[in-house]
Amino acid sequence: MARPVGKRGESRARLLQTALRLFGERGVNGTSLQLIADELGVTKAAVYHQFASKDEIVLAVVEPAFARMAELVREADAAPPARAFDVTLEGLVGLAVEHREFAAAIQRDPAVVQLLWRDPAFVEATTGINRHLIGADPTPEARIALAVAGGGLMIAGMDPSLRSADRDVLARVLLESARAVLTPHRAAPPAA
To answer: What's the CA gap between 151 and 159, in Å, rounded?
Structure first.
């Protein structure tokens, strides 16, 4: 028999943790609301009580990363112009290391990427990050370099052989690698 859902906040957090784990293991498209309910030992109706759709669950799972992305843009905006690139890149690497499981889930499902690009918070944060890394009007080469660096950060989250990697070592190597790829194309600080 399915367990009743407990306190709403605890139930929601448990549901999101379970969804994140399943998204990482099976991809978003391979994870049904029924599977989430089964893993939690609740009814599908209990899942629907918390969220109206799987898309809502996906957006709730990524909300902490969105919030950190927006915070990162604010930090870079407030930094001295000569430091904005480094503040952004260091923050982005930290975000990738902190949210490796979600990076793995995104990489698996192009439909999730499309869902994210429909979310204004994601678009705004991504645009701000890109502006600090490669400028507001980047060259094609800069966009390619950003795609290479971003892909490397995502794949690091997806690679099962890196799951047990020391976080500090992973962050250092990712930062060095992304910096090497992006520095030739970095956004020029505004002229004083």
So the answer is: 12
